[in-house]
Design goal:
about 140 residues, 6 helices, Serine Threonine Protein Phosphatase 5, Tetratricopeptide repeat, elongated
């Protein structure tokens, strides 16, 4: 005679949560950019607390430098914005990547915006803008 509670127990199936898909870099960048646009002052305060670095311009991350420049530009600090945009462009030039191309274009347009406010940055902004808009030479054209 079998005792019911001593019968072989059925294995309990563990509920496995589906893996969280990794966020694409482009989506992450766009989300960050929109956060800056929504409230640049709050973004600057959050980054100051999060990074804890005394000099955000010393960052080696071109995306951060671009976002920092954008936040400063939207906050009315054209000088810091210009330095951050220039730093982002320099970092992208030092380590080219597909994502870096977008950051470089955005930072160049940011510099152009700064040049509307600051005459001392105009030459640098024009040089970067000219490089960005220079037509590519197509040797296959007829």
């Amino acid at each position: 005679m079998k005792v019911p509670f001593l019968a072989a127990a059925k294995p309990v199936e563990q509920a496995v949560a589906p893996p969280v898909p990794a966020e694409e870099p482009f989506v992450k960048f766009e989300r960050s950019r929109r956060d800056v646009d929504r409230d640049p002052h709050a973004w600057l305060e959050t980054e100051k607390t999060k990074n804890g670095t005394a000099d955000p311009l010393s960052s080696s991350d071109p995306e951060f430098l671009y976002l920092y420049g954008r936040a400063n530009l939207l906050s009315g600090n054209a000088d810091l914005a210009s330095r951050a945009f220039s730093g982002a462009i320099e970092k992208v030039d030092a380590t080219p990547s597909p994502a870096g191309d977008t950051i470089k274009k955005e930072a160049t347009l940011g510099l152009a915006a700064v040049s509307l406010k600051s005459f001392k940055e105009r030459e640098k902004a024009l040089k970067q803008f000219d490089e960005l808009t220079k037509p590519t030479s197509n040797t296959n054209s007829r």
